[in-house]
Amino acid sequence: MAKKKAWGGRFGAGTDRFVEEFTASIGYDILLYRHDIAGSVAHVRMLGKQGILPKPEAERIAAALREIQGEIESGKLSFDLSQEDIHMAIEQRLIRKIGPVGGKLHTGRSRNDQVATDLRLYLRDEADEALALLSKIDGTLVARAEELFGIVLPGYTHVQRAQPILFSHYLLAYREMFARDADRFAEARRRINVSPLGAGALAGSTFPLDRAFTARELGMEGVCENSIDAVSDRDFAADFLYACAVTMMHLSRLSEELVYWSSSEFGFLSLPDALCTGSSIMPQKKNPDVAELIRGRTGRAYGNLVNLLTVMKGLPLSYNRDMQEDKEPLFDSARTVKRCIEGADLLLRGMAVNEGRMRAACDDGFLTATDLADYLARKGVPFRKSHETAGKIVRYCEDRGKRLKDLTLKELRTFSREIGEDVRDAISLSNSVRFRKTRGGTGPDPVRARLSALRKK
Question: What's the CATH superfamily of 360-456?
């Protein structure tokens, strides 16, 4: 026989087993138990403060709720589908524990504003954890940029060797990305941290609730000002999922390069054995599985964002049961982004850099051709002409299997009489990097200045 529902007074028949299974969320929203209890404790304390419940009853309910939290965390309390969700499960346990007085907890509250509050509290915690992990990987990138300062790497555009850059400058590019990710999570947290408690089902309450009190109790920065919007809003959840998706995109780009650069074809770096796996058939293999899985799991974060946006796009105001479908995408993205940041941080900490392979790639790829064009432009040659001349010199080298630094002055001067002995300094690899002194550039001076500023921050 189906158990009696808290809302069953209107119904003349029990709930079909299929409906219980189809509508239940207790299997996954149990993750919200701490947040549900925190919201309930704040709510019942407010009921006692306002005289809506006698203070002794409110204190008894609050104490019992804290005991229930201990029961859940110790594994003594189990749940079943008939309890629908974690909110009803906790309330039912409360009533069994302290009797009918437990049924007074829901005074002045609906599951609609309760669910919205729980979700906001959960996402606030998840945003804080993501911010802590982003701060950690930020520190790792800065530390490795300082440690590896001076190593020159071929920079790429269109996956073609382009210009030489400091490896430290490359690492700090990802540091900038993760700093923006932290800004996104912080901004999402700001919008998350507003209390919907007191909005009721959609219209507010006839009880003299003190919404500001419950908001303060929960550490929230104000209350939702429209009761309809308070229970139907999931913008804050979409903000969080967007922050997760962009962070995963950045992690995926980093992972892509770690996969390529640790391959035999590049050999720019090697990943620690402890973070790689082998092949069941090829004994020589060392597979960068952590980086590949970070790259692969990015699709989940994108899908979860689209999932929620699709759920919400056609919903009339205010609450609709469709919104139950917000939980699993949020739980999955929160878990995924945190694990992937941890994985990327381990890869960055453990990778070993092959400076010789990087420098050899810089020497072989005509990476100072732009410097040659700039050299001619400084001699008064219009840049478009100097660009053309440098291009002809590169083609000449390719036809003869030479590098720029292999050409004699006589060979160079056949392309332009403006070329003199000083061209050697202009097209040297070290000077190509050193002369890029503009703020934000790859030169040692601006990179050192940036590292100094980041350390002070």
Answer: Fumarase/aspartase (C-terminal domain) (1.10.40.30)
Candidate CATH numbers 1.20.1250.20, 3.40.50.300, 1.10.275.10, 3.30.9.10; the one for domain 17-107: 1.10.275.10
CATH entry 1.20.200.10 includes domain 112-351: yes
Catalytic residue among 279, 318, 428, 432: 279
pTM: 0.92
The per-residue pLDDT for 433 is 95
Average pLDDT value for residue range 267-279: 93
Res 11 pLDDT > 70: no
What percent of the chain has pLDDT above 70? 97
Cα–Cα–Cα angle for 28, 32, 35, rounded to 5 degrees? 175
Give the pLDDT of residue 1.
36
Which listed residue (35, 87, 135, 158) is catalytic? 158
Token pair 């002369």 in the structure block, residue: 435
The CA-based dihedral angle spanning residues 133, 137, 142, 144, taken in that order and rounded to the nearest 10 degrees:
140
Domain boundaries for CATH 1.10.40.30 within the chain? 360-456
* Catalytic annotation present for 110: no
Query: Is 135 one of the catalytic residues?
Result: no
